[in-house]
Amino acid sequence: MKIATASDDGTTRIWDVGSGMEVLSLKDAMDKRVPVGRVAFSPSGTQVATASDNGTVRLWNIASHTGKVLRIVFSADGSQLATSDSEGTVRIWNADNRHLLGTLRTGLGEIYGLTFNADGNELLTANAEGKRTLWDLTDLTKIQPRFDLDKTGLQGTIDMTWSDGEDGRRLIAAGTSGVAEVWDPIKLKLLEPFGGPESAKAFALSANGRHLATITQKRDMDMDTLDIWNKGMTKNSRWSVNSDMNEKIKDVVLSPDGRYVASLSERGLIRVWDTSSKNSKEPFISLPPDYLTISVSVGYNSMAFSSDRLAVAYAKTVVVWDIAKKGNPTFIRVGEVTTLAFSPNGKRLAVASRDGTFRVLRLDAEDLIAQAQVLTKRLTLSPEECELYQVRRCTRPK
256-300, pLDDT tens digit by residue? Predict the structure, then answer.
């Protein structure tokens, strides 16, 4: 049983009645010291609503995680989310309403590797030591391991993605330690090495599983190298650039098809390249470290790509660019982000924070307005609102 308390410094605390211990502290980073006057639990007990004295009402997900969220992924159809934390807990959520569907406690420490199968009825996890487990999600109230697998040769931060090619469906896995691997989709046994270096500071797999980007430190030089590898490449990558001297790259991400690659330095320098262009070594986006004048994300993966959008997490802000239109970015205020991921259709962005909570953000104006119409019970927009929000499907004036 839990109780919630509100305070004048803007903090809402969740307490465990049995132990008397505080289990969660909720405070919006942008509204410091604004008193919270009202607080209420949802009937399921997994959410808390708070009302501040400045008129702000927030809905908090309190059943997320007690440890730092390390990874967040969507199922293939976008209907479910899986989150994992530093304490070995994995939770399954409804991606639309963020209701908790099931919890599995692996007891394996930090879980970075996390992927659904195509049908969404199985989940594969991998911890930092390469321990893999396949979980049966058929009954989310009683999640059980389907079977434990042999330890992979990968260690550290691990990621996995599915690939469909001439040889059929395969599972591609990579880590900060060990050469990337190709696994059998049924027995999840090693079939062959994918390629790339034996270790990397950071890496990223494209969503189609055909490309691997790695960050390695250049020998005897104070700079990093960004490489993109295809399957079978071990010594020479298909595309490579060096960072500036003394510019350490923190993170890298690939677009789903591997065409675009983005890097984020420890100082906050953002660069994006189109590897298919004639001037592929020249970034078409290059923003200085003081672009937002705030520090970068505290998580291990600070960026995410959809087919046409790039999201970059700073300490208290997520910035989203439309890569295709190359227009002005969208700024979203959030807490300290640890990991983020786009939905398969790219219309939603899931963002997890250091306090163990997460949010699912709708990015398209039409989706946001549709959601607002449901909440307000108003089915139409005025012509002025249509023009303001640039909505394509809109009521025309008579």
Answer: 999 999 998 888 888 999 999 999 999 988 877 555 545 555 556
Rounded Cα gap, residues 229 and 172, in angstroms: 13
Residue type, 17: V
User: Over the stretch 84-103, which tens digit does the pLDDT of each residue have?
Assistant: 988 888 999 999 877 788 88
Residue 362 to residues 162, 349, 371, 392: CA-CA distances in angstroms? 25, 7, 9, 17
Q: Where are the domains of the chain?
A: 2-61, 69-363, 364-398
Domain at 69-363, CATH class: mainly beta
> φ and ψ at 383, to 5 degrees?
-55, -35
Pair 60, 26: CB distance under 8 Å: yes
Cα–Cα distance, 34 to 264 (Å, whole number): 34
The β-bridge relationship of strands 270-274 and 260-265 is antiparallel
Q: Which of 175, 273, 178, 194 is nearest to 237 (CA)?
A: 194
Side-chain-side CA neighbours of 3 within 13 Å: the count stands at 7
3-state secondary structure of 389: helix
Mean pLDDT across the chain, nearest whole number?
83
Whole-number Å distance between alpha carbons of 325 and 308: 8
pTM of this structure: 0.79
By CB neighbour count within 10 A (0-12 exposed, 13-18 middle, 19+ buried), where does 153 fall?
middle
Cβ partners under 8 Å of residue 53, min gap 6: 34, 35, 36, 37
Phi and psi dihedrals of 202, rounded to 5? Answer: -155, 160
